[in-house]
Specification:
Elements (H helix, E strand, L loop, with lengths): L1 H26 L5 E5 L6 H17 L3 E5 L6 H8 L7 E6 H10 L11 E10 L1 E6 L7 H10 L5 E4 L5 H13 L4 E4 L3 H9 L5 E5 H9 L3 E6 L26 E7 L4 H15 L2 H11 L1 E3 L4 H22 L8
Parallel strand pairs: 1-2, 1-3, 6-7, 6-8
Antiparallel strand pairs: 3-10, 4-10, 4-11, 5-8, 5-9
Length: 328
Protein backbone atom coordinates (compact mmCIF):
# COMPACT_ATOMS: atom_id res chain seq x y z
CA UNK A 1 0.00 0.00 0.00
CA UNK A 2 2.85 2.36 0.87
CA UNK A 3 4.52 1.64 -2.47
CA UNK A 4 1.29 2.45 -4.32
CA UNK A 5 0.94 5.71 -2.40
CA UNK A 6 4.50 6.74 -3.21
CA UNK A 7 3.99 5.81 -6.84
CA UNK A 8 0.89 7.96 -6.99
CA UNK A 9 2.78 10.85 -5.39
CA UNK A 10 5.54 10.52 -7.96
CA UNK A 11 2.99 10.54 -10.76
CA UNK A 12 1.38 13.63 -9.32
CA UNK A 13 4.75 15.40 -9.19
CA UNK A 14 5.39 14.57 -12.84
CA UNK A 15 1.96 15.84 -13.84
CA UNK A 16 2.44 19.03 -11.83
CA UNK A 17 5.81 19.64 -13.49
CA UNK A 18 3.95 19.90 -16.79
CA UNK A 19 0.76 21.54 -15.54
CA UNK A 20 2.27 24.39 -13.47
CA UNK A 21 4.42 25.88 -16.28
CA UNK A 22 1.49 25.62 -18.69
CA UNK A 23 -0.74 27.36 -16.16
CA UNK A 24 1.85 30.10 -15.65
CA UNK A 25 2.05 30.74 -19.37
CA UNK A 26 -1.73 30.96 -19.65
CA UNK A 27 -2.13 33.49 -16.84
CA UNK A 28 1.02 35.50 -17.65
CA UNK A 29 1.25 38.46 -17.70
CA UNK A 30 -1.19 39.96 -15.19
CA UNK A 31 0.81 43.09 -14.33
CA UNK A 32 3.26 45.49 -16.06
CA UNK A 33 6.64 44.17 -17.21
CA UNK A 34 9.90 46.02 -16.57
CA UNK A 35 12.53 46.20 -19.33
CA UNK A 36 15.96 47.44 -18.22
CA UNK A 37 17.97 49.33 -20.87
CA UNK A 38 21.67 50.07 -20.46
CA UNK A 39 21.55 53.32 -22.44
CA UNK A 40 20.12 56.76 -21.59
CA UNK A 41 16.88 57.92 -23.22
CA UNK A 42 17.04 59.31 -26.75
CA UNK A 43 19.65 57.08 -28.37
CA UNK A 44 18.91 54.75 -31.28
CA UNK A 45 18.84 51.58 -29.18
CA UNK A 46 16.68 53.16 -26.49
CA UNK A 47 14.20 54.17 -29.20
CA UNK A 48 14.33 50.61 -30.56
CA UNK A 49 13.52 49.24 -27.11
CA UNK A 50 10.56 51.60 -26.76
CA UNK A 51 9.14 50.75 -30.18
CA UNK A 52 9.44 46.99 -29.66
CA UNK A 53 8.12 47.23 -26.09
CA UNK A 54 5.07 49.16 -27.23
CA UNK A 55 4.23 46.56 -29.87
CA UNK A 56 4.78 43.62 -27.52
CA UNK A 57 2.80 45.29 -24.73
CA UNK A 58 -0.21 45.56 -26.99
CA UNK A 59 0.05 41.86 -27.85
CA UNK A 60 0.53 40.81 -24.20
CA UNK A 61 -2.19 43.07 -22.81
CA UNK A 62 0.15 44.62 -20.24
CA UNK A 63 2.42 47.65 -20.25
CA UNK A 64 6.17 47.17 -20.69
CA UNK A 65 7.91 49.92 -18.72
CA UNK A 66 11.37 51.01 -19.89
CA UNK A 67 13.85 51.57 -17.08
CA UNK A 68 17.06 53.28 -18.26
CA UNK A 69 20.18 52.38 -16.27
CA UNK A 70 23.09 53.83 -18.28
CA UNK A 71 26.78 53.91 -17.51
CA UNK A 72 29.65 51.64 -16.47
CA UNK A 73 29.76 49.75 -19.79
CA UNK A 74 26.36 48.23 -19.09
CA UNK A 75 27.40 46.80 -15.72
CA UNK A 76 24.72 48.74 -13.83
CA UNK A 77 21.91 47.51 -16.05
CA UNK A 78 23.01 43.88 -16.27
CA UNK A 79 23.68 43.63 -12.54
CA UNK A 80 20.17 44.95 -11.87
CA UNK A 81 18.73 42.41 -14.28
CA UNK A 82 20.74 39.53 -12.82
CA UNK A 83 19.47 40.34 -9.31
CA UNK A 84 15.86 40.87 -10.36
CA UNK A 85 13.18 38.27 -9.58
CA UNK A 86 12.99 35.48 -12.16
CA UNK A 87 9.25 35.89 -12.61
CA UNK A 88 8.89 37.04 -16.21
CA UNK A 89 8.17 40.61 -15.11
CA UNK A 90 11.82 41.65 -15.23
CA UNK A 91 13.65 41.67 -18.55
CA UNK A 92 16.86 43.22 -19.84
CA UNK A 93 17.77 44.54 -23.26
CA UNK A 94 20.72 42.37 -24.30
CA UNK A 95 23.71 43.63 -26.28
CA UNK A 96 27.03 42.27 -27.41
CA UNK A 97 28.73 44.70 -25.07
CA UNK A 98 27.12 43.36 -21.94
CA UNK A 99 27.02 39.65 -22.73
CA UNK A 100 29.85 39.04 -25.21
CA UNK A 101 32.57 41.63 -24.64
CA UNK A 102 32.39 42.49 -20.93
CA UNK A 103 33.40 38.99 -19.78
CA UNK A 104 36.78 39.41 -21.48
CA UNK A 105 37.37 43.10 -20.78
CA UNK A 106 36.74 42.96 -17.03
CA UNK A 107 38.69 40.77 -14.64
CA UNK A 108 35.60 40.68 -12.42
CA UNK A 109 31.95 41.45 -13.12
CA UNK A 110 29.01 42.05 -10.78
CA UNK A 111 27.11 39.44 -12.82
CA UNK A 112 27.95 36.20 -14.63
CA UNK A 113 26.90 36.34 -18.30
CA UNK A 114 27.08 32.55 -18.52
CA UNK A 115 24.70 31.69 -15.67
CA UNK A 116 22.72 34.77 -14.59
CA UNK A 117 20.54 35.09 -17.70
CA UNK A 118 18.37 33.05 -20.01
CA UNK A 119 18.19 34.34 -23.61
CA UNK A 120 14.70 35.27 -24.74
CA UNK A 121 15.27 36.48 -28.29
CA UNK A 122 17.79 37.90 -30.74
CA UNK A 123 15.98 40.98 -32.08
CA UNK A 124 18.09 42.90 -34.62
CA UNK A 125 21.47 43.44 -36.22
CA UNK A 126 22.64 47.05 -36.32
CA UNK A 127 24.19 48.76 -39.32
CA UNK A 128 26.92 50.96 -37.92
CA UNK A 129 28.79 53.83 -39.54
CA UNK A 130 31.99 55.63 -38.65
CA UNK A 131 31.35 59.34 -39.00
CA UNK A 132 33.35 62.50 -38.68
CA UNK A 133 32.51 66.10 -37.95
CA UNK A 134 31.93 68.28 -40.99
CA UNK A 135 34.73 70.51 -39.72
CA UNK A 136 37.43 67.85 -40.08
CA UNK A 137 39.92 68.15 -42.92
CA UNK A 138 39.48 64.53 -44.06
CA UNK A 139 36.60 62.85 -45.90
CA UNK A 140 37.79 59.24 -45.82
CA UNK A 141 39.20 56.66 -43.39
CA UNK A 142 42.53 57.01 -45.18
CA UNK A 143 42.49 60.73 -44.45
CA UNK A 144 41.61 60.09 -40.81
CA UNK A 145 44.44 57.60 -40.38
CA UNK A 146 46.92 59.87 -42.17
CA UNK A 147 46.04 62.72 -39.79
CA UNK A 148 46.36 60.43 -36.78
CA UNK A 149 49.81 59.30 -37.95
CA UNK A 150 51.00 62.81 -38.70
CA UNK A 151 49.66 64.25 -35.44
CA UNK A 152 49.45 61.48 -32.81
CA UNK A 153 46.64 62.04 -30.31
CA UNK A 154 45.15 64.95 -32.24
CA UNK A 155 42.06 63.04 -33.43
CA UNK A 156 39.30 62.73 -30.78
CA UNK A 157 37.08 59.64 -31.06
CA UNK A 158 33.75 60.02 -29.23
CA UNK A 159 32.10 56.87 -27.85
CA UNK A 160 29.09 56.18 -25.67
CA UNK A 161 31.23 54.79 -22.87
CA UNK A 162 34.39 52.93 -22.02
CA UNK A 163 34.06 49.33 -23.16
CA UNK A 164 31.28 50.16 -25.63
CA UNK A 165 31.34 48.91 -29.22
CA UNK A 166 32.63 52.28 -30.50
CA UNK A 167 35.49 52.01 -28.00
CA UNK A 168 36.26 48.48 -29.20
CA UNK A 169 36.29 49.60 -32.83
CA UNK A 170 38.56 52.51 -31.90
CA UNK A 171 41.10 50.18 -30.34
CA UNK A 172 40.88 47.64 -33.15
CA UNK A 173 41.44 50.28 -35.85
CA UNK A 174 44.18 52.02 -33.87
CA UNK A 175 46.04 48.76 -33.41
CA UNK A 176 45.60 47.59 -37.01
CA UNK A 177 46.62 50.95 -38.49
CA UNK A 178 49.23 51.65 -35.79
CA UNK A 179 47.94 55.12 -35.01
CA UNK A 180 47.26 57.07 -31.81
CA UNK A 181 43.65 58.30 -31.51
CA UNK A 182 42.29 59.90 -28.34
CA UNK A 183 39.25 58.25 -26.70
CA UNK A 184 36.52 60.61 -25.46
CA UNK A 185 33.74 58.67 -23.65
CA UNK A 186 30.17 59.93 -23.25
CA UNK A 187 27.14 58.30 -21.64
CA UNK A 188 25.24 57.56 -24.83
CA UNK A 189 25.02 58.10 -28.58
CA UNK A 190 22.57 60.94 -27.96
CA UNK A 191 25.48 62.86 -26.40
CA UNK A 192 28.10 61.99 -29.02
CA UNK A 193 26.25 63.62 -31.91
CA UNK A 194 26.15 67.14 -30.39
CA UNK A 195 29.86 66.70 -29.59
CA UNK A 196 30.56 66.02 -33.27
CA UNK A 197 28.28 68.77 -34.51
CA UNK A 198 30.01 71.33 -32.30
CA UNK A 199 33.49 70.13 -33.22
CA UNK A 200 34.18 69.07 -29.64
CA UNK A 201 35.04 65.60 -31.00
CA UNK A 202 36.15 64.55 -34.46
CA UNK A 203 34.99 60.98 -35.06
CA UNK A 204 32.46 58.49 -33.71
CA UNK A 205 30.75 55.21 -34.49
CA UNK A 206 26.94 55.04 -34.21
CA UNK A 207 23.91 53.29 -35.66
CA UNK A 208 23.36 54.50 -39.21
CA UNK A 209 19.70 55.41 -38.84
CA UNK A 210 20.51 57.75 -35.99
CA UNK A 211 22.68 59.99 -38.20
CA UNK A 212 21.67 59.28 -41.81
CA UNK A 213 19.77 62.58 -42.24
CA UNK A 214 22.82 64.48 -40.92
CA UNK A 215 25.06 62.63 -43.37
CA UNK A 216 22.70 63.33 -46.27
CA UNK A 217 22.58 67.02 -45.37
CA UNK A 218 26.38 67.27 -45.19
CA UNK A 219 26.50 68.05 -41.47
CA UNK A 220 28.41 64.82 -40.82
CA UNK A 221 30.69 62.72 -43.03
CA UNK A 222 30.43 58.94 -43.47
CA UNK A 223 33.93 57.39 -43.52
CA UNK A 224 33.14 53.67 -43.39
CA UNK A 225 30.38 51.20 -42.51
CA UNK A 226 30.79 48.29 -40.12
CA UNK A 227 28.51 45.87 -41.97
CA UNK A 228 29.68 42.87 -44.05
CA UNK A 229 28.56 44.58 -47.26
CA UNK A 230 28.09 48.16 -48.42
CA UNK A 231 24.78 49.69 -47.46
CA UNK A 232 22.25 50.84 -50.07
CA UNK A 233 21.80 54.06 -48.10
CA UNK A 234 25.55 54.82 -48.51
CA UNK A 235 26.65 53.02 -51.68
CA UNK A 236 29.86 55.06 -51.99
CA UNK A 237 31.00 54.46 -48.42
CA UNK A 238 33.37 51.48 -48.09
CA UNK A 239 33.13 48.75 -45.48
CA UNK A 240 35.87 48.28 -42.90
CA UNK A 241 36.50 44.90 -44.53
CA UNK A 242 37.38 46.61 -47.81
CA UNK A 243 39.87 48.75 -45.89
CA UNK A 244 41.40 45.81 -44.06
CA UNK A 245 40.15 47.11 -40.70
CA UNK A 246 37.20 44.82 -39.89
CA UNK A 247 37.19 43.04 -36.50
CA UNK A 248 34.59 40.57 -37.79
CA UNK A 249 31.81 41.47 -35.37
CA UNK A 250 28.50 43.30 -35.77
CA UNK A 251 26.34 45.02 -33.20
CA UNK A 252 23.18 43.21 -32.12
CA UNK A 253 20.33 43.71 -29.71
CA UNK A 254 18.19 41.08 -28.01
CA UNK A 255 16.33 40.42 -24.79
CA UNK A 256 17.30 38.24 -21.82
CA UNK A 257 15.61 37.40 -18.54
CA UNK A 258 17.06 36.50 -15.14
CA UNK A 259 18.11 32.86 -14.89
CA UNK A 260 15.43 30.49 -13.59
CA UNK A 261 12.66 32.43 -15.29
CA UNK A 262 10.15 29.68 -16.21
CA UNK A 263 10.77 28.47 -19.75
CA UNK A 264 7.04 28.51 -20.46
CA UNK A 265 7.13 32.28 -19.92
CA UNK A 266 10.40 32.68 -21.84
CA UNK A 267 8.93 30.84 -24.83
CA UNK A 268 5.74 32.90 -24.68
CA UNK A 269 7.79 36.11 -24.70
CA UNK A 270 9.91 34.79 -27.56
CA UNK A 271 6.82 34.11 -29.66
CA UNK A 272 5.42 37.59 -29.02
CA UNK A 273 8.66 39.49 -29.67
CA UNK A 274 9.46 37.36 -32.74
CA UNK A 275 6.11 38.23 -34.26
CA UNK A 276 6.30 41.93 -33.44
CA UNK A 277 9.88 42.47 -34.66
CA UNK A 278 8.80 41.17 -38.08
CA UNK A 279 5.64 43.27 -38.26
CA UNK A 280 5.73 45.10 -41.62
CA UNK A 281 4.51 48.29 -39.95
CA UNK A 282 7.44 48.25 -37.52
CA UNK A 283 9.91 47.32 -40.26
CA UNK A 284 8.78 50.02 -42.68
CA UNK A 285 8.05 52.68 -40.09
CA UNK A 286 11.14 52.30 -37.90
CA UNK A 287 13.57 49.43 -38.49
CA UNK A 288 14.24 50.20 -42.16
CA UNK A 289 14.62 53.89 -41.40
CA UNK A 290 17.16 53.09 -38.68
CA UNK A 291 18.92 50.44 -40.83
CA UNK A 292 18.16 47.75 -38.22
CA UNK A 293 17.87 44.25 -39.70
CA UNK A 294 15.17 42.22 -37.89
CA UNK A 295 16.11 38.71 -36.75
CA UNK A 296 13.45 37.37 -34.38
CA UNK A 297 15.06 33.96 -33.87
CA UNK A 298 13.84 31.15 -31.62
CA UNK A 299 14.94 30.93 -28.02
CA UNK A 300 17.37 28.11 -28.79
CA UNK A 301 18.80 29.90 -31.83
CA UNK A 302 19.26 33.05 -29.75
CA UNK A 303 21.16 31.13 -27.07
CA UNK A 304 23.44 29.55 -29.68
CA UNK A 305 24.07 32.91 -31.35
CA UNK A 306 25.17 34.52 -28.07
CA UNK A 307 27.60 31.67 -27.44
CA UNK A 308 29.14 32.11 -30.90
CA UNK A 309 29.28 35.88 -30.56
CA UNK A 310 31.09 35.53 -27.24
CA UNK A 311 33.81 33.50 -28.95
CA UNK A 312 34.28 36.26 -31.54
CA UNK A 313 34.37 38.86 -28.78
CA UNK A 314 37.10 36.95 -26.96
CA UNK A 315 39.29 37.04 -30.07
CA UNK A 316 38.71 40.77 -30.63
CA UNK A 317 39.33 41.75 -27.00
CA UNK A 318 42.53 39.73 -26.86
CA UNK A 319 43.73 41.47 -30.02
CA UNK A 320 42.88 44.97 -28.79
CA UNK A 321 44.18 44.41 -25.28
CA UNK A 322 41.32 46.34 -23.62
CA UNK A 323 41.24 45.74 -19.87
CA UNK A 324 38.78 47.56 -17.61
CA UNK A 325 38.19 47.83 -13.87
CA UNK A 326 34.59 47.39 -12.74
CA UNK A 327 35.30 49.46 -9.63
CA UNK A 328 35.99 52.60 -11.66
Amino acid sequence: MLKVKRSMQACMMVLLSFWIPACLAQTYPNKPIRLIVQYPPGGAIDVLARNVAQKAASALGQAIVIENKPGASGLIAFEACAKAPADGYHLCLATGEGLSFNPFMFAKLPYDPNVDFVPVIDLVRISGVIISSASTSYDTMAGLLETAKRKPGSVNWATFGTGSNPHIYLNWISNKARVDITHVPYKGSAQTIPALMSGESDVSFVALGFVLPLIKSGKLKALAVTTPKRLPQLPNTPTLAELGLDPGTQNWVGIVAPAQTPMAIVNKLNAVFAKEIKDPALIDGFLAVQAFDPVGSSQEESANFIKADRQTAQRVVQATGIKLDASN
